[in-house]
Amino acid sequence: MQHNTDNLRITSSAPMIAPNELMEKYPLGEKGSVNIFQARQAIKDILEGRDHRLMVIVGPCSIHDSKSAREYAEKLVALRESLKEDLLIVMRVYFEKPRTTIGWKGLINDPDLDESFNIDKGLKIARHLLTDLAEID
Q1: Across the strands, what pairs with 96?
Q2: b/e string for 77-104 if b means 16 or more Cβ within 10 A?
């Protein structure tokens, strides 16, 4: 006799938004694309020894507020410009709490901070924020 052991604890499921839908809804603009390409090239040049500057990666442990993240990025751009001869300042943007076993799991998993786990909403907020941040210079 074979016993059913699959998916016994699943009470419901809902499809998540597809990556291509997110990219269509929140496309990366030309300016953002150029900024990302140039930043990646600068990082590569430092890692491969072609750029003498020190790379500094800074940012919050996990983003939970888009407005604050944008304000932080704008301040960082001004600082980056003033120190560009010696430092390459890169903003770290992270949305999750990987070591958290209890409590809030991060913006993507729980954007409303209420354990509702509206992941589609979290993905949309995250993608929108990332495309906005990429445009700042």
Answers
A1: 106
A2: eeebeeeeeeebbbbebebbbeeeeeee
**Domain definitions of the chain by residue range:** 53-137
pLDDT tens digits along 25-79: 999 999 999 999 999 999 999 999 999 999 999 998 889 999 999 999 999 999 9
pTM for this model (two decimals): 0.87
Written as six digits, the tokens of 54 are 């020190």
Nearest one of 63, 66, 62, 44 to 53, comparing CA atoms: 44
